[in-house]
Amino acid sequence: MSNQKTKKNSENDLFRYKKASEGELIISEEEVKEQGNLPKKKYKAGAITATVWENKGKKINGEDSSYETISLVRVYQDKEGNWKSTNSFRLNDLPKVQLLMQKVYSDLVLKEQSLFKNNNK
């Protein structure tokens, strides 16, 4: 029975990875409650994923405000074949990290410029 349980856990991990690699949201209700928000957008290059989070806050004057933060993750399989994630990157990952960060930065800056342009009309 232990072997079946391990196989089922491995299948679940693989399912989570496949779903994540397809850009779908893999997050539990507990994680949403802990984090307080959902991803705004995900960018993927191979095993590396950059996630943009929209955060809500208040300015010093009490006005509501929002800002984005970015998390960067690499998925991999351990020796037992279980899918894991890490925030550490290998030398060969760095070009993909650079590409993702450039794309995220570009999209966020262009969005800000577009919002600024629309507010000045």
Topology (elements, then pairings):
Blueprint: H1 2-21, H2 29-35, E1 39-45, E2 48-58, E3 64-77, E4 83-86, H3 94-119
Antiparallel strand pairs: 1-2, 2-3, 3-4
Q: How helix-rich are the residues, as a percent range? A: 40-55%
Task: Please report which band the strand proportion falls in: under 5%, 5-15%, 15-25%, 25-35%, 35-45% or over 45%.
Answer: 25-35%
Work out the count of structural domains: 1
How many strands, what sense, and barrel or not for the largest sheet?
A: 4 strands, antiparallel
Rg from Cα = 18 Å
Write up this protein.
The protein has 121 residues and is an alpha+beta fold. The chain has one domain. Helix content is 44%, strand content 30%. The protein is built from 3 helices and 4 strands, in the order ααββββα. The chain has a 4-stranded antiparallel sheet with strand order 1-2-3-4. A hairpin with a 5-residue loop joins strand 2 and strand 3. It is elongated. The N terminus is likely disordered.
